[in-house]
């Protein structure tokens, strides 16, 4: 038997799995609120109760939304990011400087989470990776021979930034964290530029869509989305 | 919130494009025992694995094993999509893989027991039908583990 969470009701209605509990939670948050065991338990119990349904398929709407943050925690890392307006002399050096500024906050966050970090998909360190990422842009070069390394490196780097920005306890607004990353940091600027280079390269344009979110790419100057909705991940 | 009506048009179109017809004829298994006697496994499409495991590829129908006696805080995510929140996962693994919640349910006898092994797929880049072979393998492994029910978390 199966039961579980649905995050896009229309998809579930179409596919008709035996049992599903639709929730209004953001993509990436099937259990709703991080760190809130009571909330998560309520969701789980609602989904498990579908196992008692006499017949299916069953699709039930979970009635509880995530409470809107009336006062989201301010990002705990008080770093003043300086997103380059003009290309710096060295993206690699700029990123290294930004990394070193964030490192104490990353370590503070790791301490708060009892040593837990989700950085570590890449075999190389974040420091090493971001210098290499910066060097790519300095040289206007794409890592065509090492796309797997590149993807793992950028995801680790992003998570390093996210964990730094949320180092102290708090109820963080996910949209605020991502806005700061993509619009205020040098790494966000770097990835947006590299994504544009991928987009412009025949045979690699699809890869751009797993570097930068749609909303960021579509908002960047000169972007011309040339894809069908189904092409993306 | 993922009410499609709240999303920008292009995001709404993208998510609606993922709607597929049922993969096969309707299937239904009624529970033969109450919840507090059921053995439950967790299956997620969050692209989770331990650091030393092979990362998921950009479009990848394989799965990873997550032993129930391992520390879930050591899990990492190699999901290829960038169009969902990862800030929450960084804060709490239970947001996508509620293993601690289910351990609590087992401890208070709300459920019968937890499976020895749980599973993660990576839910991006492929049509659902591409997962059939791997999903069948996992179904066989779950049977061997005497699992009665699976709790699914999509990412």
Integer-rounded radius of gyration of chain A: 20 Å
Uncertain runs of chain B are none
Secondary-structure element order of chain B, N to C: HEEEEHHEEHE
Helical content of chain A, roughly?
40-55%
Mean pLDDT of chain B: 93
Instruction: Kindly provide the radius of gyration of chain B, computed on alpha-carbon positions and rounded to a whole number of angstroms.
Output: 16 Å
Q: What key attributes describe this structure?
A:
heterodimer; A: 233 residues; mainly alpha; 2 domains; 3-stranded parallel beta sheet; 6% strand; disordered C terminus; B: 155 residues; alpha/beta; two-stranded antiparallel sheet; 7 strands; 23% helix
Written description of the protein model:
The complex is a heterodimer of chains A (233) and B (155). Chain A is mostly helical and 233 residues long. Chain A is 47% helix and 6% strand. Chain A has a three-stranded parallel sheet, sandwiched between helices. In chain A, strand 1 (2-6), helix 1 and strand 2 form a beta-alpha-beta unit. With 155 residues, chain B is an alpha/beta fold. Chain B has one domain (34-153). Helices cover 23% and strands 17% of the residues of chain B. In chain B, the strands form two sheets. In chain B, strands 1, 3, 5, 6 and 7 form a five-stranded mixed sheet that branches. Chain B is globular and about 45 Å long. The interface between A and B is large, with 82 and 72 residues.
